[in-house]
Specification:
Aminopeptidase, seven-stranded mixed sheet, 5 helices, 7 strands
């Protein structure tokens, strides 16, 4: 019998390279054909290990999915950045390496981030997703989110629709 330890835990400085690799793989998988190629490459390139080390040093709320001592997902979150929407917390990013998607790990990270937000007095949560990212939109609907706002986001010369999902108390 093979056993693997799977945990969702706060990110550590030594995780930065693996978070960067997860970010790279997850973003290329999620956004290829959604975000224009040149813009996607620029966005991925900006988030190397040094960027993630700085985020961890600054105290960003960032947790990782640790699968048998390897980082295969991450979630970043904090206070809602859109004061006109009546949600106190926000999940900024939640990504898994492609080979770890579809088996419940996203739900584990989502729930862990929402619990941590609630423990810090942020009871309701907002999450933005590109409307063309069908997996993300489906995921947040399955998590119980309701669309509370739409917006447009520019990627170079092109724009894409995005939607905000609202979640009440966990």
């Amino acid at each position: 019998m093979v056993e693997a330890l799977i945990t969702v835990r706060p990110a550590r400085l030594e995780d930065a390279s693996e978070i960067a690799a997860t970010h790279d793989a997850a973003w290329r998988d999620a956004y290829r054909g959604v975000i224009p190629g040149r813009e996607l490459e620029r966005m991925v390139a900006r988030r190397g290990a040094a960027w993630w080390r700085n985020a961890i040093r600054r105290g960003s709320r960032l947790m990782v999915l640790d699968f048998d001592e390897s980082v295969c997902g991450y979630v970043s979150y904090g206070r809602n950045r859109v004061p006109s929407l009546p949600f106190s917390g926000e999940i900024f990013e939640l990504y898994l390496a492609p080979e770890f998607q579809g088996v419940g790990f996203g739900r584990r990270m989502f729930d862990a981030a929402r619990r941590d937000l609630a423990e810090h007095g942020l009871q309701s949560t907002l999450v933005w997703a590109l409307a063309d990212n069908e997996r993300a939109v489906g995921f947040y609907r399955r998590m119980g989110g309701r669309i509370v706002r739409g917006a447009r986001e520019r990627f170079g010369d092109e724009t894409r629709d995005r939607v905000a999902f609202g979640f009440d108390r966990p």
